[in-house]
Amino acid sequence: INWRSQRIKVYIDSCNQALDIFCSTQHEVRKHVLSITNILDIFKRSTLINQNDFVSDEYVNMDKLSKQIECVVENKVESLLQSYRSLRPLLLKIESVVSEASYTGASSELSSYYFHVQINVYNALSEVVVRSL
Predict the structure, then answer these.
(1) Phi, psi of 16 (to 5 degrees)
(2) 122-130 contacts: CB < 8 A, separation 24 or more?
(3) Residue 91: which H helix or E strand, with range?
(4) Model confidence at 3: pLDDT above 80
């Protein structure tokens, strides 16, 4: 046995440890990405005005209907806003796992992913508006 063969086990152990760290990081990132995807799907499926919200057998004057529409839209926008606000903590968790940078939300390594999420949010909200016209 030479001196090199004695270091093989240490090398294999350090490689296995690095692989374990990588796998746990990958699992955590995928979990947060799935949560982000679910939030974006909520945006895509949303409508601001649904005809079923206003079905009534009685006559409704324009004032009452206008207030009813405003209330329904306001509630749905508030719900979408809460979903949107929940994106930032998820993005920060991904950043803290992937990047050596602090919890800033300004990681240069993730700038393209941030842009990707912003584009998806914009597209989903555009679909909501068009679908609600």
Answers:
(1) -65, -40
(2) 124/40, 124/43, 124/44, 125/43, 125/80, 127/43, 127/44, 128/43, 128/44, 128/46, 128/47, 128/48, 128/80, 129/48
(3) helix 87-98
(4) no
- Average pLDDT score over residue span 95-122: 84
Q: Compute CA distances 97 → 84, 103, 106, 112, whole Å.
A: 21, 10, 14, 16
Neighbours of 109 (CB within 10 A): 11
Q: Which amino acid is at 90?
A: L
Q: Which of 8-12, 86-90, 110-114 has the lowest mean pLDDT?
A: 8-12
